[in-house]
Amino acid sequence: MKVLSKLLVIATASVVLSGCTGMYTKNGTPNDPWQGFNRGVFAFNDTLDHYALRPIAQGYQDVTPHPVREGVGNFFSNLSDVGNTVNGVLQGNPAIAGTSFLRLLINSTLGVGGLLDPAGDMGLHQRREDMGKTLAAWGFKSGPFLMLPLLGPSDLRDTAGLPVDWYSSVVTYINNNYAKWGLYFVDLVNTRASLLGDDNLVHGDRYIFIRDAWMQHRQFEIDGGKISQDPFAAGASDFDTGDSASGSGSSTSVQGNSPSAGQIEK
Question: Which 8-state DSSP code applies to residue 195?
Answer without folding.
Answer: T
